[in-house]
DNA sequence: TGCCGATGCAGAAACGCCTTCTCGCCATTC
DNA sequence: GAATGGCGAGAAGGCGTTTCTGCATCGGCA
């Protein structure tokens, strides 16, 4: 004998629909619908009865059908390349959390940066009538922006600006300038920059800010460019920067991973000590920067803050679809640790 | 004058439907549908005409409506806690990539491990008629498994086993035993284990394998348990292991992050050198393990392989929905680097 | 060359599931 | 007793797929 003879455990093998719930609760199909719509006119007693029946049957409103009628879903697309790397992994985590908290459902399109891959991602997201698209890597072609606009799908770009799209950026150039000022306040005259060949707006801005400020103050900057903005790229940049006899006294790295690669290379292949003989500043302040080995002075870029701003931008865009593109610019602040000291005389 | 007077650029502000494409191409609505269905009976000429019209209008099949009829979507849910941490970030990246490659669309539910959070995640995924759910963290309650089964939604659990669900696991216990054998082959008699208080099946298996093998061979194991299985947890474990005078000669760490914390603590707060005075073995082989600072000997767990197996399991489950639960067990292999040497006499 | 059968393509209708709108009824209150 | 408000029931709509039916064309055979 089963625990209850109410429902024989036949293989349903399909989702229960509102009709079944209605039948079980002895109400109409639309009553069930209203019971699940906040603010609809159902008596408390009936709603309770419906909810009990729904619970028992394991009913769940079909968001596909709901979205079909609403002409939009609660899905939000995150388009990203290499979501496992450095700062980006934290940004993806923060965004998914913020979106879920908002009631949205994040789709992560892990893909390349080429135009056709981005277009394919957009097609997928259009197919599911995504509420919005957030681009974390790569530059959407103008057709992408145009198509999103035509279909009324908000498009938010992070870490770069795109004509016609909303974006969240940080003050990369200002941070680059500040890095230069910090070094110069220490009396260094030979500066170095560790960047990459594959340049993005973000890295270009950091480089420009640093070099321009250094040039304006009469300092020389030696450039090192690794392949990618990761650990290996940092090693490669270090190889270039510390190959000759006149190496820099202080290096600004395009991000923390590059700084780690550079530091490790310097420690292993040169006799320079950090920070006594060489100061290093990174960018991002990922958790590894605080590890004892690196104890890296770096610019903090809080992923939770950036995610919150992206979501806020999305809210505003949905409230005013026809408003001109919005540009959100966040500030960073330097986190002083052991790899580069700041003289007391220096004012931030 | 506009570039072409064909379409005045009015704000559509809605997605184009198959009806509009049909009108434009001068065919019926069902012809459009067939044109987008592979293998349907449409003449090549008509298909081409339809495709051209679709392209011009920016038409995209509504997957919401498609899923409504198919009673399932191509969405696959990934339920994960702290997707930014260590190995998990790589696993999430590998899974999203593998799923997209398969033609599925990954939804990432970044949430806690509590029962109610998991149930909420399941409701969301049921609502969108997700093709499958893959759980990366946390233990689904039995109601979760039962509901997934009733609704015919495949459920795949990674890194643990759950009654009634398919899973992919790795041989944690075997790896733990091998770590012990490696240490013993070096002649060490005082072993250490760096784990955490918050234990998961994964960490328990590694610990058990290591301790049992050591005990079986007459070696003593000192235990250190940090708070979480991350860098800080490794530091904390190190504090416990190296507090007294009789510290271990070799430590097996529950994962790489813990190993990094332990190594950094040892370097800073003791005079022990690695590997001369202390051997360390980690687990996961995340990219940081290969960094020069750590040069960590560790067990490789390839995220791409695990993702491929998870997807393969999904394929099999969809092919044979009624088949009993499948358990996939992957092997790891040790990657020998500088933090722990393996004597020539040792056979793997 | 003409006719019949077979085949293939196109269109119409129904279905899937939910939401919303409208209509009607009942209960409550003055 | 009548009017009003609130709740319930039924129907339509949103979009793509699938099935069924009809029509036309092609080929084969006499």
Automatic annotation (TrEMBL), chains A, B:
InterPro entries: HTH_LacI (IPR000843), LacI/GalR-like_sensor (IPR046335), Lambda_DNA-bd_dom_sf (IPR010982), Peripla_BP_I (IPR028082). It comes from Phyllobacterium myrsinacearum. Residues 16-70 form the HTH lacI-type domain. GO terms for molecular function: DNA-binding transcription factor activity; transcription cis-regulatory region binding. The lineage of its organism: Bacteria, Pseudomonadati, Pseudomonadota, Alphaproteobacteria, Hyphomicrobiales. SUPFAM superfamilies: lambda repressor-like DNA-binding domains, Periplasmic binding protein-like I. It holds the Pfam family Peripla_BP_3. It comes from the Bacteria. This is Transcriptional regulator. Keywords: DNA-binding, Transcription, Transcription regulation. PROSITE patterns: HTH_LACI_2 (PS50932).
